[in-house]
């Protein structure tokens, strides 16, 4: 493969750069001074690779060496030993091996919930603490591991940021960068070097956020689209609730660590599926390189590449069905990854949260291959639908294991309005409690008549039963219950007060840091002004002295 802008004759460096990282990006010589914040390393004569720290380069090289060493040791063990290899975890990219720590092994051996389903194909173990594969069109959950566990998402948060931005703005809108949108960055945070006062289009901003994972761009998008940063965060949480997310809470648009910023694998799959419905989002996440033209403050273009390594043909991590996605990493979240997969029949979204080690891409490939090889689509057209369903969505289907038939699944109808004012509803198919398909439906009038009558009958029976209470609660028990409830409420108020105090302190520290940076900048400007005045005075004095010398020169004889 050819990396744009990279001297491909430098093979060791090209191989090194094929791994996922959110800590480097490629830039031309001209734009380096505006984008690079860390050390600069040369590849060939014309191209520089910008890293946040020199340590990142060493880390990349060490990672390649670990891969090679692990491969050698595994091969030597197989050749010179007749004993079985100690529970070597499979599920790696073909031809690759990785040294597995005890911690990674423990995570790998965590139970996969979907494997406990009746007649369900056994899925692979993964090195992520939570993972899911869901069919984006039907909503069928085909692989599930701790899918409702709250985890830190890191930069895959930016998928929700993009979704809210696409639904509430135009691609031609201007995104303005304020002092606040840049000042919050810390050393090592992903950035494309935007400056306060710069303006770019919303389209360029989305590319910078989703491809380069630029955190200052995420902040600026939130501030612009939400008519205020805090309002945009509220919009993110409201959108999550609208999509049916129950274990998600956002505190920022970029994913930098916050204890109150979390998401579950199931919720992230719902968010990612909704974002993928937007054509512009699909286009951006499938792009290899983007260039932001000169702005009102910077006269040179910014160039950056796609981080998702499964898209690059010719690499060990390349996977042809992958059509896009978003990477993420923080020290607390570890590696997170959202991938969109399409083999021509199934359109899937996979989510990996808190992946230990360097297994995020092999895990994703193994999960996808498991689904492609073991599941099938069953269209709802021509099938016997539940009584009360008039029609379903066009091309609606369910996804089930190849050994499961349509009559083996159960259907449940949830009307949009139980009174019957709206005839719309949701038809959910499940197999052994696992969702295998969801479709929007139109309900018949008979459905509401039947269910209303049933509800009235049940209510009458309940009233009769409630005429005679089964037991009574003594005043003493009531008092104890009241005390317990009061204690719980008091503890809750104390906790809320502590959280509020913590946030206020954090906000105060941030404001103080911003003030300090402004003071430093103002001091530098003042110093420059003083130096400029001194240079002017010196030049005037020098010119005056030279003029006097010329006036008093003796005439030439």
Short description:
The protein is of the alpha+beta class. It contains 14 helices and 18 strands. Helices cover 41% and strands 19% of the residues.
Q: How are the SSEs ordered, and which strands pair?
A:
Blueprint: H1 11-16, E1 24-27, H2 32-35, E2 40-43, E3 47-51, H3 54-80, H4 102-108, E4 128-135, E5 141-145, H5 157-168, E6 174-176, H6 179-183, E7 199-201, H7 202-210, H8 215-225, H9 229-242, H10 265-276, H11 279-285, E8 289-292, E9 302-305, E10 322-330, E11 334-342, E12 347-355, H12 360-374, E13 375-379, E14 389-392, E15 397-401, E16 410-415, E17 424-431, E18 434-443, H13 445-466, H14 475-551
Antiparallel strand pairs: 1-3, 2-3, 4-5, 4-12, 6-7, 8-9, 10-11, 11-12, 13-15, 14-18, 16-17, 17-18
Helix pairs in contact: 5-8, 5-10, 7-8, 8-9
Question: Into which percent range does the helicity of residues fall?
Answer: 40-55%
Distinct helical segment count? 14
Strand order of the largest sheet: 5-4-12-11-10
Strand % is 15-25%
How many strand units?
Answer: 18
Low-pLDDT residue spans:
1-64, 73-98, 453-468
- CATH superfamily membership of the domain at 105-376, which one? DD-peptidase/beta-lactamase superfamily
Radius of gyration over all CA atoms, rounded: 30 Å
Structural class call reads: alpha+beta
Shape: globular
CATH class of the domain at 105-376: Alpha Beta
Return the CATH topology of the domain at 105-376.
Beta-lactamase
Largest beta-sheet characterization: 5 strands, antiparallel
Overall pLDDT: 80
Note the gap between the termini: 79 Å
* CATH architectural grouping of the domain at 105-376: 3-Layer(aba) Sandwich
